[in-house]
Amino acid sequence: MGYKLKGPFSKALSNLFPYEFTIQDKKLSSIEAFFQGIKIKDKTAQDFVLRYNGMDANSNKAASDFDWKESGMVYWKGTPIKRNSREYDDLVDELYISAIQNPLYRNVLKNVDRPIIHSIGEVDKKETVFTRYEFEFMLNCLVAFLKRGE
Q1: What would the pLDDT profile of 60-82 be if each residue is shown by its tens digit?
Q2: d(CA 7, CA 28)
Q3: 93: closest CA among 48, 33, 139, 41?
């Protein structure tokens, strides 16, 4: 699965896909905007990135001189959060729970009929703000949750 792969599920379930939703009073234009935004320490600059669609947010990596990998810290609304922490995991859970409030995203997840496997991306939490395994796990959990509610 990946944004450039063929098929509607691959594109529609990508963090790059332009789904609008709100998390903690912040309106996002994609899930990827969150993951790129938390790499930016400055709150004002982060707010701009949160409004970008996935491809533009992903291209915005060079706009910050802050390197989250050096400290293992990311920022959400001006607050530092350790990448490898329960607080971070809870925030990502909230992100995806917020994202399924978008009816299009929720319906795509409801239509998944087999386990989601993602073969693109880093596996080490020190190298990425969201590993491919975290992504797989999150999407499969959301699918199971939504199907249980049918």
Answers
A1: 665 667 789 999 999 999 999 99
A2: 25
A3: 139
What is the distance, to the nearest Å, from the Cα of residue 72 to the centroid of all Cα atoms in its chain? 18
Confirm whether 68 is domain-assigned: yes
Q: Which H helix or E strand runs over 75? A: strand 73-76
- State how many domains the chain has: 1
The H or E element that residue 68 is part of is: helix 68-71
Query: Is 13 a domain residue?
Result: yes
pTM of this structure = 0.90
- If 0-12 CB within 10 Å is exposed, 13-18 middle and 19+ buried, where does residue 6 land? exposed
Q: Both ends of the chain: CA-CA distance in Å?
A: 25
